[in-house]
Amino acid sequence: MSSKFVPENLPTSIQHYIDGKFVDSVDGDTFDVLEPVSNEVYVKAAAGKKADIDLAVAAATRAFKEGPWPKMLPRERSRVLHRIADIVESRDARLAELESFDSGLPITQALGQARRAAENFRFFADLIVAQADDTFKVPGRQINYVNRKPIGVAGLITPWNTPFMLESWKLGPALATGNTVVLKPAEFTPLSASLWAGIFEEAGLPQGVFNLVNGLGEDAGDALVKHPDVPLISFTGESRTGQTIFGNAAPYLKGLSMELGGKSPAIVFADADLDAAIDATIFGVFSLNGERCTAGSRILVHRDIYDEFVERYAAQAKRVKVGYPHEATTEVGSLVHPEHFEKVMGYVELGKTEGRLVAGGGQPEGFEFGNFVAPTVFADVKPDARIFQEEIFGPVVAITPFDDDAEALELANNTRYGLAAYVWTNDLKRAHNFAQSVEAGMVWLNSNNVRDLRTPFGGVKASGLGHEGGYRSIDFYTDQQAVHITL
Ligand code: NAD
């Protein structure tokens, strides 16, 4: 392999994991997995289809019906989840190395994501033992209480951006609440997902509770969505895929949680702390290679500070260090896959006709290969431009001026998406009023993307359906049966 860095002991194949065993596809089919620096095939992964999903769902159904997992005390499940967190934490460097190699994420950022995966398990391990449910008494007449129950086999379908961490965000609550699962990870990045099986075995998760089927979305993903014995689908991915899944799940009336795409605005008012706003909006769209659902990929700037902002922002974007994913100084690595690279480069070329290019605009010097893209900034982008409206999911940002608060709000809300918004102002009233009017599931005021795991996570409009995070995840993965007793 011509890549500059190859981790030691890479697997020689990536298999499914069904009922406690690593297995190939029933039909023996595989697909190629590329690493994004050389774009060479480094491993083949089992290409799951309906027959493999059927086996995985059968194993998960058996594990759910026969137990012990769904019937264990929350404290017992919690212990297993804490052990999972301990193991993930103790292997953070190896996980980061593999994730960075497979996805092109800068190694330091992949390390942060591995630790967050451990934290997700720890969080839901704690939450489930603290879970309290409602009881109501009507004196002399009735007692009513909530009997919370796991639902069954949860189908988890995940994307290729920060794959291991996003899988943990679903696996943690699904398992904490006593469900059994079938995970279908993204086909671009199956490497880190294949490590869950060993981690879970070591932590003592009973056989059949966790099942993994690799494969393409339209094969394995589709079969999972259409399986009649899978009552829940938690999906993270593109809005268009979400629509397809929504339609395919409709005949079964499945529970759906959808975390979809975004085109989130960062609004910088004239009274903002400009240094902080520039640092944060640079991080907001260029960290994780711009492959971040909550990326602040549209920056709206008050006209009074517009020219200064654009000049300083472009200068800083040019200083963002593009490099090999495995190098500790790298801030933007390689995009995940040549197909995605082509898509992002298509938007870069389109941007040259829709805005004023002030930084980047192609492959960075010295990195004219693989899937590297220079941090790219377009100014003077009109709201009807495609680069203003469509999710690019790469290190590309559009900057647009506004004249007053009303126009800022109109521009902020002028896309089909509504995932996140970032507001920069020192006027407290304006900040809160704007936050309440902006169409976004999550708003950060003078701050960046950090959040408490108890808060709701999710989007409005085309960015999602339902919320995860804290008790909302527990609610999604459980039934709340009401029991009424006459006194
Ligand atoms: P994608 O929609 O192409 O794929 C996501 C997953 O769905 C993959 O596992 C894929 O195999 C599967 N899939 C594809 N077609 C399917 C079908 N017909 N039936 C069932 N499964 C199918 O998304 P992606 O390109 O992997 O991920 C990037 C997208 O994810 C971006 O739009 C990003 O904004 C979004 N995202 C959202 C959040 C969030 O929390 N809102 C987080 C991360 C990523």
UniProtKB/TrEMBL annotation:
NCBIfam families for this protein: HpaE (TIGR02299)
InterPro entries the UniProt entry points to: Ald_DH/histidinol_DH, Ald_DH_C, Ald_DH_CS_CYS, Ald_DH_CS_GLU, Ald_DH_N, Aldehyde_DH_dom, DH_HpaE
Gene name of the record: hpaE
Keyword set includes NAD: yes
Residue span, Aldehyde dehydrogenase domain: 23-483
Keyword field: NAD, Oxidoreductase
Organism of origin: Sinomonas puerhi
Pfam family, one: Aldedh
Coiled coil region boundaries: none
The family this protein is said to belong to: Belongs to the aldehyde dehydrogenase family.
Active site: 259
GO MF entries: 5-carboxymethyl-2-hydroxymuconic-semialdehyde dehydrogenase activity
GO biological process, one term: 4-hydroxyphenylacetate catabolic process
Name of this protein: 5-carboxymethyl-2-hydroxymuconate semialdehyde dehydrogenase
